[in-house]
Amino acid sequence: MRNLLIAQSGGPTSAINATLVGIFTAGYLSNKIEKIYGSINGIEGVFKKNIIDLREKIKIPTDLDILSQTPAAALGSCRYKIQKAEELKKVINIFREYNIGYFLYIGGNDSMDTVEKLSKYCKNKKIEDIKIIGIPKTIDNDLEVTDHCPGFGSAAKYIATIFREIERDSKVYSKTGVTIIEVMGRNAGWLTSASILANSEETEGPDFIYLPEVDFSVENFIEDLKNKLKEKKCLIVAISEGIKDKSGKYISEYSRICKQDEFGHKYIAGAGKYLEAVIGEKIGCRVRAIEINLLQRCSAHLQSGTDIKEAKLLGMKGIFGALEGKTGIMVALKRKEGKYYDIDIEYIDISQIANKEKKVPLSWINKQGNFVTNEMEEYLRPLISGEIKNVYDGELLKYITLY
Amino acid sequence: MRNLLIAQSGGPTSAINATLVGIFTAGYLSNKIEKIYGSINGIEGVFKKNIIDLREKIKIPTDLDILSQTPAAALGSCRYKIQKAEELKKVINIFREYNIGYFLYIGGNDSMDTVEKLSKYCKNKKIEDIKIIGIPKTIDNDLEVTDHCPGFGSAAKYIATIFREIERDSKVYSKTGVTIIEVMGRNAGWLTSASILANSEETEGPDFIYLPEVDFSVENFIEDLKNKLKEKKCLIVAISEGIKDKSGKYISEYSRICKQDEFGHKYIAGAGKYLEAVIGEKIGCRVRAIEINLLQRCSAHLQSGTDIKEAKLLGMKGIFGALEGKTGIMVALKRKEGKYYDIDIEYIDISQIANKEKKVPLSWINKQGNFVTNEMEEYLRPLISGEIKNVYDGELLKYITLY
């Protein structure tokens, strides 16, 4: 009997612990797996042998739902890319020490790089008794092949929800104004696109959506707003943090040199704050830039039911794959054709995913580069569906602490 | 039979529409009230005769829960203080035109000023058939006499929730860092104090809480952080947007002169961003300032059950008062003594409330001025209790539009 090791890596999401629940549950149910270990702070925890016995930490079944609704990576995270061959050797030696037969790594692009390197190393060294599997998570939704990534649906639900709330709030006064909401996404505009879901029977949704996939022009942006302000008084604008101009420079960089105040302190403002200043100057109306910041990736109180179910299923599928002898793969979601949302789970060779980045297709962005198409909305809508029946501890959600 | 007019004013909250539901419901049930009108954009709507028949907009009972969970002021809002006697005369004339016997104004300090002026005007002019009643709401919780204000409990629940989520998110990496979260409150630190509720079995809550009630010293602040960083790696700090130094200058003002970048744009940063820059310079660790902005006052997806129930009851009580002939009053919450949370609702003469501001008592702030006491926590905890069973429209909460 061999042991299972699980680790989490990269930026946290609201669903990364649901995947941990899926892996843990399947690992617990299998008679082929003895101990279930968790590495603290991703692959860094392996190097430091900061490894815990999860069966001692997670009570069945009570803690499963609690872990699933706990925000951020319950095993801690890291941003570490393995560079050297001796590091790979060291990892495998530590796996031997703990009798690890299955290593499941939950993460985004960087983590899939680790899965690829480790599995290639094993292949080259003819190590066949250690299975290395990647399970996707990222609010950026930028992993290749998989239809979408666990964590994205909950973040998208959060974005849709707060865009609706802010729209309602922004419109209570009878004054003209622009509200800019800056959403995470350096290179891919998926999450910013989710603002379109704020469009509903009782809300209009954003007036403009600007993504990193299209060159951003400050002049066109000001023109867009000026024209729209002729029709309506209150505008809501979604921008990705990573919008760039045609020279490839991030819009946020234009504010980076902002250095001073009487003490010479340096301020770093985002793209939204920069555009707030520009609008103040060029249009002169009321303007407010809101940077949602960490809230969009840790708002576990607003999980998407679909996202959480898929996150668990992918984790379980990873165990089935490992037990069937697969290695060097990532589990991925495939959307089935048809009227109703339905998915299949597949195994994808890790080389198709690691170090690649899936961007929003240009055909899902309008010609003017300031909105997304109906195809995008149809793609997104099912991902935010369904609510979670949460477990409370007094007034607030119950969490679990694993280390 | 006389008509009822309802209006909403000041900054929106998550509970202001629950109060509207309470007033509307009691008005609908009373045989002494004929039409139920809503004024759009507060008292401004009265001047413009922008007045709607609410019975035509709100279906009973379906829409009551939907209105109650709709964020921001469903009748719109304003920030308008009546200054001149002729304005009062004009208002009363318009009330006559619409046969208004009861005017219920939901709002904060400024709105209670309007209630005071209108009711005094009526008293002086011996107008006895128009009853003017104020119903409190404010996330700032800064109204006198009432134990607390509707809207505050939901905002406090939001603050407690996101502090816990951000704490979890901030601690996933094994690095040293400071996260500053800037909470609304120019002069009163009630909402910032609610961050203490993030302290739970599975979370530590903020390490420091700085309120506008105590002079803020940047030097002491940096000392506080440096000392705490000797004990732990990851600090969470709550600050009110309105913290001031001993000269009375807002800390946020120190960054206001930040003007430039190559185009000469002007940036306005808050107190958090200013302190982020200072920490970067004086301590040099990872630091992130988060400004929660509008989200804290419009997050209707996270209402406190206690808050919403009280908001409705206060609205209903306002109608009972008006029908019993009361005028120039505000309805207020009185907390009963005893082991379990329990309240009474009272009528308070408006002169005790209008243009006054209730601050956090200094005895509820620690000696060092960087945290709040157990009394504060005991005061706050019951206010965020209970959840709402929400009504969904597909994937997201259902809202109502009244105008």
How does this structure look, described?
The structure is a homodimer of 403-residue chains. The first copy, chain A, has helices at 16-29, 42-47, 62-69, 85-97, 109-124, 152-170, 190-193, 218-231, 271-282, 295-298, 305-323, 374-380, and strands at residues 2-8, 33-39, 51-53, 100-107, 131-136, 177-183, 208-210, 234-240, 286-291, 329-335, 343-349, 392-393, 396-397. The first copy, chain A, has twelve helices and 13 strands. Chain A has a seven-stranded mixed beta sheet, sandwiched between helices. The first copy, chain A, starts with a strand and ends in a 6-residue tail after the last strand. The mean pLDDT of chain A is 95. Chains A and B meet through α6, α9, β9, α10 and β12 of A and α6, α9, β9, α10 and β12 of B.
Summary?
By secondary structure, chain A is an alpha/beta fold. In chain A, 34% of the residues lie in helices and 18% in strands.
Strand order of the largest sheet of chain A: 3-2-1-4-5-10-11
In which range does the helix fraction of chain A lie? 25-40%
Roughly how many Å is the radius of gyration of chain A? 22 Å
- Count of separate DSSP helical elements of chain A: 12
The greatest interface here is: A-B, 80 and 79 residues
How much strand content do the residues of chain A show? 15-25%
Count the E strands of chain A. Answer: 13
Q: Give the oligomer, counting copies of the same chain as homo and different chains as hetero.
A: homodimer
Structural class of chain A: alpha/beta
What gross morphology of chain A would you assign?
Answer: elongated
Secondary-structure element string of chain A:
EHEHEHHEHEHEHEHEHEHHEEHEE
Unreliable residue runs of chain A: none
Instruction: Note the gap between the termini of chain A.
Output: 26 Å
- Please state the average pLDDT score of chain A: 95
